[in-house]
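User: Modeling request: complex.
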Amino acid sequence: MEKFKIANSIRENKFGFYFTLPALLFMLFFISYPIARTLYLSFHTYNPIQSNEIIFVGLENYKWLFNEPNFLNSLSITLIFTILSVIIEAIVGLSIALLLDIFRSRGTISSFISKIVLSVFIIPWALPGIAAGVVWKLLYHPTFGLINSILGRDIRWLSEKYLALFSLIVADAWKTFPFFLIIFFAAITSMSKEQSEAARTDGANWLQELRYITLPSMFPIIVIAIVFRAIDAFTKIFDLVYILTGGGPGRATEVLPLLIYNTGLRFFRFGTASALSIVVMLFSFLFGIWLFRRRR
Amino acid sequence: MTDFRLKINNIAFITVVIILFIIIMLPVYWLVQNSLKIDDEIFRISPSWIPINFTLDHYRDLIRQFDFDKHMINTIIISVGSTLISLVLGVPAAYGLSRFRFFGSNTIILIVMIVRFFTPAALVIPLYDMMSWMKLIDSPISIIIGTTIINLPLVVWIMKGFIDELPEAIEEAAKIDGCSHFRVFTNIVLPCTKSALVTAGLFSFTAAWGDFLFGISFSQSLRSMPATVAIATMDTGFKVYWGAMLSGGTVLCIPIVIITLLLQRFYIKGITMGAIK
Amino acid sequence: MKVGGRKMKRILTVVIVVSMVMALLMMLATGCKEQADSVTDDATVTEEEVAEETAEDMGEKVVKVMHIASPEADYVAEHLEEFEEMTGIKVEMDIVPRDDINVRYLRELIQGIGTYDVVGGMGSDNYTTYVYKGNYIPLGDYMTDEEVDNIYAKDIFIDPRTGKLSGITQYQNWEMLFYRKDLLNDPDEQAAFKEKYDRDLTVPKTMDELLEVAEFFHRPPEMYGYFVGAVPWSIFGDFACAIIGEGVNISDEEGNLTLTNEGVVNAMDYVAKLAQFGPPGWETQSFFDADQLMQEGKLFMYQNWFYIWQQYSTEFTDMIGVAPPTGNVQPGVFLSGFLTLVPANAPNPELGIEFLKWFGSYDFQKQQTIATGNLPNRTDVLEDSEVVESIASFDQYKACVPYTGILKTTWGNELQTGLQEAFFRIVNGEVDAAGAMDWLQNEKYADRKAIE
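Assistant: Request completed. Predicted assembly structure:
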């Protein structure tokens, strides 16, 4: 392949290693070692409050984990959150992207204006999660919140078991839909217009155009975007939950990252928390490997 | 006939955009607007849409009572530090992985992909242990390290994707002329990657700016606590300082909004590159 | 998409200018802070940080104190000046949210990272943990034997490793029953109650009486019969009161868990039943919210800590009354307070000890009791006539003194959430109380001891 003309010999190739070395050292020290230690701790009990002893317990932590309803509870909550959240965001993002594209292709607006609209809509995605959490907490407030005031009712958005999760999903959807919007819009605008023009001259209306041409050709992008966003939602949801519900009511919104944090840094059961971390890291491992294979 | 349809289209578009704009920007507006109201007005049963009693008291309290300025400085230190380190480590690594094929390079790419999809919370537990014996608890350095761990894969990903697309002709010519690999990197490749650099730096910066997990895990006092954690601690369980939370949130968001609007092109590029490539 | 050099430069200039402007604004704002400090508007107290950074730069003595967000911490914040005048030591006090404070205790008292000289705000769920296992400088080393004996319930605070007094609590506290005495004493209500329950309407003493009265006055949405706030640090008090009220504890002498004990099961069952009489949203609320409701006249009775009685006895004299907490075997007097310790790695331990001594001084304790209604940690102050007079219905408080107890375990926080989980299982109808406690003891906390 022409790709590697710049360094053909092995001697030359080792320069690549030098370039990568600093990052590699960093990752070795701050990623591999922690992972190794987590793995190690997951087979022991370690509770800093009780003692500095680390006692080997074999698979106890893992057995306990799978019997412990908290883990299964968190797992299901996180899954539900991921699925619903991603679906909503994808639909919203796709709709707005299509809308913008329809207007753009009809000549109503120029690409310039659509770019401006797009840039404003990115803002929720860029905002710090805490700020979004604070505002939504106020919006959801049962007495002083805007939502209840508009609806004229007294709904406990954040303190009822299933409603809290739903409220969380809505807040997260608001924050993250721009991700899909950007990707889909980029995909739509870079599509070749020949097919749609041919369809239009054949007399297809916009709905048919959508169903038979636009969506199918966007399908791969949609899938990839959804998959990426899903793994992100599954692993990184923390800020919003912490400030909106703190995991409550009870444990109704205790997502996996929050469970790990609580087990480790609130109850100091490092052994259990490590086992939990390993199980969760497994997802990342598997996904990373799958993606790597697809790319090569 | 077409004129009329054009007008309808225009009106429809503008209406739709305005409605969307209102819905999407409402929370942002709500944040800023409420930070300018006096407490009594925030806690009204039917909240007002425009502050009736305008006040800057909460902003004043932020500094006097909550030392928020010091927290913002921590946030800036952490964001800048994390971005710099991520770039310094990640860009050469991306170049190395893109242009060279050496033993283990594929493994490294695999590792980058895996870490990209890590659960940060899972890393916090062992890192806490590490930071404890390195005596870095309650130091901005620990938070910088944490955020860099999360940012680095994305930087490498974006930069590598970009460098992969760069034609090698100039680099080859330079090599033939006798430039060392390092010279080629700094004088030829780097200048061409400016836009990708901005994108990668932007993403790192935004991620570190809004970081909460590492902040709350490692920080304890003014020494290291970033603004995000400071805002969260304004909900003490005993009192909730809404005014300060809202104004703090606004202050935290202003630079991000400005940067987003100015550099939106890079955001857009980054999101598409981050996912597609 | 190649970016033209000039455009790039323009963007970069804008970014740099914006950041410089922001930095400038912030510097101005910090400049304003020095001036603002001397401005006195209304009597609002700086609650978060009474920070005097310049003092430390000038080589003055500064003691760093950590406290928990609470009315009691506010009281301390208001009186720091007295300490500063008396000793010449400046105080920097950090007030920490309740959810976050446990990590800090661990960091200061077990890992010893040395941020603070004084660590306060530990409730009794943490007493055993840190007294038994913390690394601190024992206050007992700086007190005479008489002074140590003078400390109320001192045995709880003696370090079993050294036999010395570990530290002191800022005050003594337990939950009392607050109820609408105007309604209780109303003849119409009494007649209706007599008819329905075939006994007189009196201040409830046992849990069954409590349930009946709560049910009788439960008239949503204008009034709720009882309040149990289910946030862990709030509901723990309800559990503990009920358990102590049954005359049992969650551990035995050998330190084993006794959660399946009949008394404990009963206690949990009662709390679950009482919670049903609460307003919507109680699942995520705390006793602070109950205060609000009570003052609005929407709650008939609930249990809460002392601090609120001061306000009730002065502003709501005819409306709200106080009584010892209920219990089937004895009043469920669940002792707490804010334990305060000097960590072993404190940067300035001598200053920390000075601070604790001020905390425990006769004057401070007396003033605090008179001002806040919280009981002192010294038995001599408890007998001071001014103090006795300052607390309305003092006899109700005195009646509780023989029954104080705590739940003895070294992992109080975790137990707190465990109890809360078990509680929600009962409330959601998944199991009954016996089943929930059986699960808690034999599955969730299998192989664990109360004292670890």
